Amino acid sequence: MGPRWDPTPLADEIEVEAVSTAIGEAPAPATYDVRTVEVTVPLDGTSVRARISLPVGAPTPAPAVLFVHGAGTGKFSRAFTEPARALAAAGVVTMVPDKRLDTYTTSHRDYVAMARDYLHSVELLRDRPEVDPDRVVVYAESEGGWIAPVMAVEDPRIEALVLVSSPVVPPRQQAAFAVDAYLRNTGVPQAVFRAIPRAVGMSMPGGGFEYADFDVQPWQERITQPVLVVYGTGDASMPIVQGALQIRSDLAAAGNDDVTVRYYDGANHGIRVGGRVVPTYLEDLAGWVLGQPATADASPRVAGATPTQTYVAGPVPQPGWLRDGTVLLGLVIGALGTMALCAAGVGTTRVVQHATAGRRARQDAAPPRRYARGVAGRLALVAGTTVVTAVALVWYVVSVARLAVDYERNAWIVQGGWVAVRLLGIAAVVAAVLLARRVHDARQDGDVVAPGVVRTVAAGGVVLGSAVLLVVLAYWGVYQLGI
Question: Where, by residue number, does the polypeptide cross the bilayer (predicted)?
Answer without folding.
Answer: 327-352, 379-398, 418-436, 457-478
